[in-house]
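Data availability (excerpt). The following record was deposited with the supplementary files.
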Amino acid sequence: MWSNLLRTLVVMALFGSSGTQNRTATVEGIVVLFGGDDGIAQAKVQLVGLDQGDLRTYAVSTAMDGRFSFVDVPPSSAYRLIVTGPGFVQVVNGSAAPAGLLFSLTTGQHLTNVKLELIRTGAIYGRVQDQSGKPVRDAVVAVHRIKYQSGQKVPGDLPDIRAASLARVTTNKGGEYRIDDLPPGQYYVVTQVTGSVVFTSTLMKSVCSSEPIKNIGLPGVLDRRVGYLPSYYPGTVYPDAARMINVRVGGKSVPFDLTLAAVRTYRVHGEVLELETRRRVQSGNIVIIPRHSIFPPGFSCSIPLIKGAFNIDRLPPGKYSVLATSDNLTGALDVEIGGTDSTSLSLTVGPPVSLVVSLTSSHAISDDSAVGVGLQADPPVPVIVSPRVNFTNGLAVMKAIQIWDYDLDILPNLQRGYVASTSLDDVKVEDTLRIRHETTHLEIEIDSDGCTLAGHVATAQTGSLSDVTVVLIPEEQYRDRKNFYRVTQADAAGSFSLSGVPPGNYEVFAWRSLEPGIWLDRDFIDLFEGDGLHINLSHDTPIIEVALSNRWK
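Predicted structure:
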């Protein structure tokens, strides 16, 4: 018995316990500069466990050749490999990824040849001044990723823009700021002073109230209707008018000076009249929907009518849509506020309208009963119903349509076709359909034999390409029309296909990790103008190859 035990102990000493050996894994790799193979020494590599049963973190520094290794690592379904270094940010699949590389480890696995990439960061600096040119001390300067809704820049979290910022600093007594270690890419810069948080928050409440709001505005200014809102580079309160800044890879920083923008608000007063009698309605509501981007996406306010009238004490300048409702009656009015108070607005409400919808096609449709048309409220408002109908012999009647603006939605989506033109009462409509009390007829012309474009994304990068967005940008004369753009995602191998595309001239781009809608931003496209593949799309266009564009120009 003792001899058998002795032999067992000797085997365990020489070869280790099989249970211990099989329970651990190893990870080996190298840290390199993005796009190259030369190792980076003294980079800090962390292996972070994400499994609830094991949240431990392992850390090593790379050797002189950039290599690193982790041994005796417990298996887990979730680890992150994070690499950091002064003046660098990690890259995963061609995109800045400070959160690192996500992967799993199985029992006894030896993960080798892991390649972690770093890219040099950039910096911005500048000065914040008021409208008289004086430096502003203790102003918060924040950098945000650009977000889009329907291709329009939208603000970060209001009223305090610090909440969603990637980085932020406070200006010194000379109004100066500097932000270092920014991953290369496109951003907007926004500044605010302490009073702008209060002013913005109070302003958002005042739009939704018919009661006067007191005690907001600029210190020392008697007119309390003037105050600071968050100001975007170079000096505007409207995010959709903000200038994009492009942080280059380790590039020389350039100054971005910001000017605080003061805003004067205005009183708005109006009445709501019934269409037939031209008398004030006795009850109902109005909904205020900004057509500019001062307020967050989807922001709207409903205010009750008082004997058919409404009052708004403070409204910042800009374009608005006003929707009035009273029982089943609706009416809409577009207004532009600014320069002076608006005290004589008048909206007319009437019953829903019926719309005769006709469908024509350049090619025969075998069964148009399978084709439907829908109207999507633009912008969406809870009280507005989005109707839809199906065609019979090219005709349909859409009933109970409320007065509002709509986007056209062909259902199901045309696989090979596209909407060639739309007309309301014989007037061609380029974009939004404005349904009003006098509207009676909608004509839709479709081309059911659109072009198909197939292609492949070319890149030296390895790994899946399923995060690549392929965008067809129309020629200059159609750049302001959203329905002329086409977008799709590549598959893991980089292949893509688009059907139902109108023939014409396009520039084709492929980007990784693209923010939805950014391709409608002229500032963004201007950065890459000429880098895309120019094509004249027709039914005979062959399979194309488009290069993956570098977001870090």
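Summary of structural features: The chain is about 5% helix and 45% strand.
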